[in-house]
Automatic annotation (TrEMBL):
<keyword id="KW-0812">Transmembrane</keyword>
<feature type="signal peptide">
    <location>
        <begin position="1"/>
        <end position="26"/>
    </location>
</feature>
<dbReference type="Pfam" id="PF07686">
    <property type="entry name" value="V-set"/>
</dbReference>
<keyword id="KW-0393">Immunoglobulin domain</keyword>
<comment type="similarity">
    <text>Belongs to the immunoglobulin superfamily. IgLON family.</text>
</comment>
<dbReference type="InterPro" id="IPR003599">
    <property type="entry name" value="Ig_sub"/>
</dbReference>
<feature type="domain" description="Ig-like">
    <location>
        <begin position="27"/>
        <end position="117"/>
    </location>
</feature>
<keyword id="KW-0325">Glycoprotein</keyword>
<dbReference type="InterPro" id="IPR050876">
    <property type="entry name" value="IgLON_domain"/>
</dbReference>
<keyword id="KW-0732">Signal</keyword>
<feature type="transmembrane region" description="Helical">
    <location>
        <begin position="310"/>
        <end position="331"/>
    </location>
</feature>
<keyword id="KW-0677">Repeat</keyword>
<feature type="domain" description="Ig-like">
    <location>
        <begin position="126"/>
        <end position="205"/>
    </location>
</feature>
<protein>
    <submittedName>
        <fullName>IgLON family member 5</fullName>
    </submittedName>
</protein>
<dbReference type="InterPro" id="IPR007110">
    <property type="entry name" value="Ig-like_dom"/>
</dbReference>
<dbReference type="InterPro" id="IPR036179">
    <property type="entry name" value="Ig-like_dom_sf"/>
</dbReference>
<keyword id="KW-1015">Disulfide bond</keyword>
Length: 333
């Protein structure tokens, strides 16, 4: 029974003999559905109902003989005979594989007439992502190409979803040209074929860009009191901060001044403001892509307004002197 040539010849003989009786409807001896659908990994029973006295019977898969009566021809241990009696001739396939898909034929000889019925086994496989882009880090303005490859039966669809805006794009490949910092986010790949819940994974896209100082302003301070100068900068990777005085000296911490650097900002903390603290301070933010700086004043309340008043008063004196000189010249003429 283990000779492949013998099995094929025997199967061909069975099909030839039974084809002569193919005009007989299956309803005369029982009914098998046209198609049976099963998930990969599940088990299935193929039933063949018999209501006549049978002399010979067999199960075939394509041209391969599985059983002739109770004799097993198949070497596959997953395929077993469930029943073999005058009313039922059924087989069971355990842990169905994709290769099990195809036509199955139940045949038997009853009252010297051949009987035959066909069933087609459809094996479905849930959609599954098998290969996907890794997390990626790029500089602003570069192009980004993401991919998400999926398998399944039937053929699955692949959809890209932007986590920030919920935008959907169809297809295994996602191309982003000249990416901006606003497009840095999680991108989710979703594949589905209706067999099982969708399979989904995320890829993180990081966009690097140089620092941009977003918040800085002049700050009034009273002698002997506390004060804070803030410098906030957006950057990827995060910026490093440095502070300088108006004479370009680096600012260093002491018992009245402390520098506190955080992820996106730097603070100058004055615990006891003195005269030496008033002046111009420059915040310098940098990373490997570039740098940005901004200046701000720590001043005594009213000092800026006083400077403005003095400027206007000086202008008035100059105008008066110029008018007086002009009048004297006219009188001499």
């Amino acid at each position: 029974m283990g000779c492949p040539l013998l099995r094929n010849v025997f199967a061909a003989l069975i099909l030839v003999l039974l084809s002569k009786g193919s005009s007989v409807h299956g309803a005369e001896f029982g009914h098998l559905p046209d198609n049976i659908t099963v998930l990969e990994g599940e088990s299935v029973t193929l039933r063949c109902r018999i209501d006549e006295e049978v002399t010979h019977k067999a199960w075939l898969n394509r041209s391969n003989i599985l059983f002739t009566g109770t004799d097993k021809w198949s070497l596959d241990r997953r395929v077993t005979l469930v029943n073999s009696n005058n009313s039922d001739f059924s087989i069971h396939i355990d842990k169905v594989q994709v290769t099990d898909e195809g036509p199955y034929t139940c045949t038997f000889q009853a009252n010297n007439k051949p009987r035959i019925v066909h069933v087609y086994l459809i094996v479905q496989v849930p959609a599954r992502i098998v290969n996907m882009s890794k997390n990626v880090s790029v500089n602003e303005g570069e192009n980004v190409n993401l991919y998400c490859l999926a398998v399944g039966r039937p053929e699955p669809t692949v959809t890209w979803k932007e986590q920030k805006y919920g935008t959907l794009r169809e297809g295994e490949f996602l191309e982003i040209t000249e990416i901006t910092r606003q497009q840095a986010q999680d991108y989710e790949c979703i594949t589905n074929n209706g067999v099982a819940p969708p399979d989904q994974r995320k890829v993180i896209v990081t966009v690097n860009y140089p620092p941009m100082i977003t918040d800085m302003k002049n700050m009034p301070a009273h002698l002997g009191k506390t004060a804070i100068l803030r410098c906030e900068a957006m950057a990827v990777p995060p910026a490093s901060f440095e502070w300088y005085r108006d004479d370009h000296r680096p600012v260093e911490s002491d018992n009245t001044l402390r520098i506190k650097n955080e992820k996106t900002r730097s603070l100058l903390l004055f615990t006891n403001v003195t005269e030496k603290h008033f002046g111009n301070y420059t915040c310098f933010a940098s990373n490997r892509l570039g740098a940005s700086n901004a200046s701000m004043l720590l001043f005594r309340p009213g000092a800026l307004q006083g400077r403005g008043t003095g400027l206007h008063a000086g202008m008035s004196v100059i105008v008066c002197v110029w008018v007086s000189l002009s009048a004297a010249l006219l009188l001499k003429v």
